[in-house]
Automatic annotation (TrEMBL):
Gene3D superfamilies: PEBP-like (3.90.280.10)
Pfam families: PBP
CDD domains referenced in this protein's UniProt entry, alphabetically: PEBP_bact_arch (cd00865)
NCBIfam families assigned: YbhB/YbcL family Raf kinase inhibitor-like protein
Classification lineage: Bacteria, Bacillati, Bacillota, Clostridia, Lachnospirales
Record-given protein name: YbhB/YbcL family Raf kinase inhibitor-like protein
Organism (species): Schaedlerella arabinosiphila
Amino acid sequence: MKNHNLEFECTGLEHGGRFPVENTGRGEDISPEFVIKNLSAHAVTLMITLEDLSHPIKDFTHWVIWNIPAADKIGKAIPAGRTIPSLQGAVQGIGYGFHRYAGPKPPKGKKHQYRFTVYALDCRLDLKASSFKRKVLRKARTHIIQQGSICGYFE
């Protein structure tokens, strides 16, 4: 049951393709919609990270959100905030956006690679919103039953 590949679509972003402007810091800077294809019946919550793979700081975190109720779809434009009432108290931790989605915005003239990773967990995580990605992943490690990634670029 552990670590089976999670298949998902990120609306407007093909794997290896260019980020839609609306999902970047040069556009509306809103999170995209996620459509989960093969979610395990054992999944209780979902967690999402967005990382800049080209940043000088290895896998620089743009966004980390956890305790999203397990579902086949996560709507776009998740609002800013430590906890998200519309997602049954999902928690946004510390990333580039400080408790919110912060889309790609590399320096002008530079092309950066980004990666969304969606994790399916068998529980809720009891962590404060002041947590960074590293702490969240450490706490989640033994509870991840599926994960998958989509990469894209923006310049």
